[in-house]
Amino acid sequence: MYILTYDLHLIHFTLGLFTIIMVVFNGIIEYFEESLPLFIVEAFRYGKTLNGPVQSKLVRLLKVPKSWFTHFYVFSSIYSPFLLYQAYQSYVNFSVVPDTYLDALDLVCTETRVSSATKENVMLALTLLCAQCFRRFYECAFINAKSNSSMNILHYIVGYAHYFCTGTGILCQAPAFTNSLLPMDKFDLTQLLTVNTMLCVLIFSWAWVHQFRAHKIFADLKSKNPNKHGVPKGDLFELVSCPHYLCEVLIYTSLALILGYEHTTMLVVWLWVAVNQTVAAFMSHAWYNKQFKDYPSNRRAIYPYIL
């Protein structure tokens, strides 16, 4: 998208802005919470870290049920397979990418983008992203305990933006989807049989399974005590307060490594996820320690034995 003759990369700009806001606002609230207007604090925090019902009238006007998380997993479970299908059509069936798709990617990711990952790795990354979206949708629809919690509309919008930017971002630097059109070789799955790729798939799979276990533990805990929060126990909860956030970082780390360091858009996605999940984990960890006097002192916020 051109703004004053400058071709703006919307994904880099959007996720970069989100990342800066997370860091700046978390720092301001951490050190100056008592002096800040209530609506600023409540606009940033959500869930249990709100310490009770929303009190600010402005934030109350902007709140939506936390169960609406399911909405953007419905979106991602449709959008990500759509992108995977388009990649499959191009790489396996040698279909020409429609000009409308290229124009849309030019608008979102600039006209100067270049291919920076192999078609096999792009397909693998999109397949793993679909697996993540499908599992999160399943958890929201069938595993998560019903809750009366709410979040403000800004968090809701960020959820959609994240999955749009991730899926689109993978494709915007993919072979055949850039303006540097090169002859396409035959799709070859054996290209994925490398130490790096197999290690990344193992990391993804491990984190994928343990994130599911963490969400299941949360759901079981909520079912037993629907009107109050408790201390989750078992699996990675014995090491960190937020294993689901740790696993999210590992999942996106594996995707970034699969696509390679030259895929700058995925690196921006990874940075956003790492910062967002780390900040959210510290907020939750502080809340647990404040609410429960006997909270395990050996637990870290998100990274075992470190932070």
Q: Estimate the helix proportion, in percent.
A: 55-70%
Q: Strand pairing plus helix content: what structural class?
A: mainly alpha
Major sheet details: 2 strands, antiparallel
Strand order of the largest sheet: 1-2
Q: Rg from C-alpha positions?
A: 21 Å
Topology as a string of helices (H) and strands (E): EEHHHEHHHEHHHH
Based on the structure, what is the oligomeric state of the protein chains?
single chain
What can you tell me about this protein's structure?
Helix content is 62%, strand content 3%. By secondary structure, the protein is mostly helical. The chain has one domain. The strands form 2 sheets. Strands 1-2 form a two-stranded antiparallel ribbon. Strands 3-4 form a two-stranded antiparallel ribbon. Strand 1 and strand 2 form a beta hairpin. It is globular, with a radius of gyration of 21 Å.
Task: Annotate the secondary structure layout.
Layout: E1 2-3, E2 6-7, H1 10-32, H2 38-44, H3 57-62, E3 63-65, H4 69-91, H5 99-109, H6 119-143, E4 150-152, H7 153-172, H8 195-224, H9 243-259, H10 264-291
Helix pairs in contact: 1-7, 1-10, 4-6, 4-7, 5-7, 6-8, 8-9, 9-10
